[in-house]
Amino acid sequence: MFVSYGIPDLDKILGGGFALGSLVMVMEDAEAPHHMLLLRNFMSQGLVHNQPLLYASPAKDPRQFLGTLPSPAVPKDEKSSHRDPDQEKGLRIAWQYKKYFGENQQGFDSQNGKHDFCNNFDLRKPLERQFLTGKRIDCASILDSPNLVTLQDRCATFLSQFPRNDSNISCVGRIAIQSFCAPQCGYSYLEWDMLSLLRSLKSMLRSSNAVAVVTFLPSLLSSSSSTRWQHMADTLLSVKVLPDEDKELATLLTGYQDMVGLNVQKVAQINTQVPVILDATTFSIKLQKRRFLVLECLNQAPVDGSSGSSYGTSGSCSGSLDF
């Protein structure tokens, strides 16, 4: 079973999303905060599907970060449907009651009783309040933590809710750990302890119906520790900014001078012997209409950012050759 990341293009690249029980590592770039965009979409996708979330951050109050999570975009067919003005007024009043009185809503499309496997998230629109209430969200601050015992206990307690067995999967959990080796954390110099926690987390994930995403800045670690962390990941992604001094590359990639790349370095192969063959491994992270995250192959002709085609629509050759 796969779990969506919350970015349709990334799910297609990975062959359907992340396998349950996998540890996903995202290498940050100090010059670009795009790993935060990836983390937001991952968290929002889970909350929209009513999946419990454990979020750990070096911030003093991690719960404030929840206010920056994006909301699912409304499908075009729903936007274009015309409603009676009186009915529209009634719907607005009902929405206000849900917003202020905290009515439990079972999903973004609860009226139809169904969910999209992966939503397009509007980065300009915050996630609605009803998704942020209740006991489904557990936030932990790792700021000034002298050791990792507390975080490991929180992860173990959280994952114990999703034991893996042969019966139907009733619920899936998500863990998001931001900037795991941040210097403001008291344990930042305990590289071996951090590696041990990752090893323990990976072991616990294997026996649970959950997925964990951990972001870290490789430059804060020794080269040996950074290599070990990368080997520990089931799926390894890296965010990288195109250097300004790379003039030759900037000339070749016209329109990508301010490009931020996403490199897929490893794809999880859990419970399978069939290797995942990617069409490409390096993509550019772009904002379509300044709202939606899309990925574009760097070996393709650049497209205009306002109406660019994403990986899902332009990632394969559609033409034919006549000899």
> What is the N-to-C order of secondary-structure elements (H for helix, E for strand)?
EHEEHEEHHEEHEHEHEHEEEH
The first-to-last residue Cα distance is 44 Å
What shape does the CA trace take?
globular
Mean pLDDT: 78
Q: Which residues sit in consecutive blocks of at least 5 with pLDDT less than 50?
A: 97-113, 300-308, 314-323
Radius of gyration: 21 Å
Oligomeric state: single chain
Share in β-strands: 15-25%
Q: In which order are the strands of the major sheet placed?
A: 7-4-8-9-3-10-11-12-13
Would you count the extended β strands for me? 13
Largest sheet: 9 strands, mixed
Count, helices: 9
**Estimated helix fraction:** 25-40%
Sequence-ordered SSE layout with sheet pairings:
Layout: E1 2-3, H1 8-13, E2 18-19, E3 23-27, H2 34-48, E4 53-57, E5 70-72, H3 76-80, H4 85-101, E6 121-126, E7 137-141, H5 149-159, E8 173-177, H6 191-206, E9 210-216, H7 223-232, E10 235-241, H8 247-252, E11 260-266, E12 282-288, E13 292-297, H9 311-314
Parallel strand pairs: 3-9, 3-10, 4-7, 4-8, 8-9
Antiparallel strand pairs: 1-2, 5-6, 10-11, 11-12, 12-13
Helix pairs in contact: 5-6, 6-7
